[in-house]
Amino acid sequence: MGKEKDLIQRSLVVCKPDAVQRGIVGEILQRFERVGLKIVGMKMVMPDEDQYRAHYEDIGQMITRRGEQAFRYNVAYMMTGPVIAMVLEGVEAVPLVRKIVGPTEPKSAEMGTIRGDFSHMSFGYSDAKGIGVPNLVHASGSVDEAKKEIKLWFNDDELYDYSDLNEKYTR
User: Distance from the CA of 100 to the CA of which of 28, 58, 92, 116 falls in 20 to 30 A?
Assistant: First the structure.
């Protein structure tokens, strides 16, 4: 039972300003629910620059990976409107969510993924325009990253443990 329990994971998903402003959060959420992932926390928020720095650099190391300029473009883009933050739970949820979302660069995302179906921007184009990549969704990159991100975005009293009907068929 211990090993089985370790395979139940939680992942942070953030529907970014472009998803909220385009009115496709419901379609995005539906994809996660259809595979049996359970929402254990969700809220609309408008984080400040400090929270985005903690999220994208302190945890995600974006400056290290893509540079200060890409980080600044991304934070400016993220601050253009509210986001929907959610915590999803399920069997190996972290890699499953990443698979559903698709690669970070939308132009590389396969059709059938969220980014492949709803976006198409490239890093090169966004860099040339001096903007962040509107790629709809953030998804935790690893189990360790997910734990840190969830702690940053949610208090313990905002997360819920409950049984849902999907668990009968997906766990």
Answer: 58
Compute the half-sphere exposure of residue 29: CA atoms within 13 Å on the CB side of its CA. 19
Q: Say what the pTM is.
A: 0.92
Distance CA 10, CA 21 (A): 26
Catalytic residue among 10, 38, 115, 138: 138
55 is catalytic: no
Of 47, 49, 53, 147, which is closest to residue 62 (Cα–Cα)? Answer: 53
pLDDT in tens, 43-65: 999 999 999 999 998 988 888 88
pLDDT tens across 97-112, in order?
A: 999 999 999 999 999 9
Q: Are strands 137-139 and 8-15 parallel, antiparallel or unpaired?
A: antiparallel
Residue 125: how many CA atoms within 13 Å on its side-chain side? 10
Domains, the chain, with CATH or none: 2-161 (3.30.70.141)
